[in-house]
Design goal:
Helix 3 runs parallel beside helix 7, helix 4 packs parallel to helix 6 and helix 5 packs antiparallel against helix 6. By secondary structure, the protein is mainly alpha-helical. It is built from seven helices and no strands.
Amino acid sequence: MLSPSPDNGPTSRLAALCRRAFRRPGQPKITLRTALLGALATLATLGFLGVVGALTGSQLLVAGFASSCVLAFMLPGAPLAHPINVMGGHLVAGVCGLTVRFLLPAGWFSAILAVLLSMLVMALLGVLHPPAGGNPLAIVLAQEHWSYLIAPVLIGALAVGFFTWAYAWLAKRIRAGGSDPIG
């Protein structure tokens, strides 16, 4: 039990309890600064997609892009969060999903095969990006058309990839100046 002290109020005790309950070996420690900067980067990225989507009449906000932001901005040094993985993973997964959607009858089994195909192709091409794994599932189940590859997949993947690159570039520049914004 934590002993009461001026800097150990109920909120601190709750935070300590949560850290102990949810912390796992090997899980990276994410500082408050990283979390806040990542949240701002996510706001900028998804806000950009929302505004461009509203101006063009296209739905550019899809769940996979939000998941990409979590990975890219909370764990910016993770190999699967690199911009090439973000962009390549979403594009490969989109192509695989659409290919299966047009070659096989609609249904849950086709959707699963589309996810498996995208996993294999992403791995073989070296652009594995877990958040993109949901794209083929959504494409097959919603019976999307090839235009879906342009909007939201291509436009969204390029935008998220650009914001991921910009975030890493800015972090490197700030770190070189003596401050480390991502850790």
